[in-house]
Description:
Blueprint: H1 5-10, E1 17-18, H2 28-33, E2 39-42, H3 50-57, E3 65-74, E4 77-86, E5 90-91, H4 93-101, E6 106-108, H5 111-118, E7 135-139, H6 140-143, E8 148-151, E9 157-161, H7 163-167, E10 172-175, E11 178-179
Parallel strand pairs: 4-7, 7-10
Antiparallel strand pairs: 1-2, 2-9, 3-4, 3-6, 5-11, 8-9
Amino acid sequence: xxxxxxxxxxxxxxxxxxxxxxxxxxxxxxxxxxxxxxxxxxxxxxxxxxxxxxxxxxxxxxxxxxxxxxxxxxxxxxxxxxxxxxxxxxxxxxxxxxxxxxxxxxxxxxxxxxxxxxxxxxxxxxxxxxxxxxxxxxxxxxxxxxxxxxxxxxxxxxxxxxxxxxxxxxxxxxxxxxxxxxxxxx
Length: 186
């Protein structure tokens, strides 16, 4: 079975494999929550960070997404969410995300907590297979993407899934939470 051309485009030079046929590349929680038709690809764990993979494998930045975990408090209650934005943007943590979570201040969840509570590896956290009760804030640009490359829960692989499938994950909300990073002056 070959991958659709649009899915292959976001994988750059890397070979796409049907995710359901390659469970050894995915943690159990991710395997259990895989959207139908998802693809995976094996990578060097040293290339798990988005920019490294973009540079090494000609993966398009606008076809890649990042998942960051944030938290904030309101009335003593902690509110945690995974935020999914295109790699060409950044999550507007203290603007849009703070507003959606209805908290006074939002910040990135400390790495050790994000890893422990998600059951995933740092640099590989994905919205697929997150713990129940976590909100998943999917930026509208991600939800509108035909296919997007995203972490797989481990650093040795990635997933390629439809944006609509991310928007349909348990706990997912499609919201405008991304801001385009400022252009560097030359």
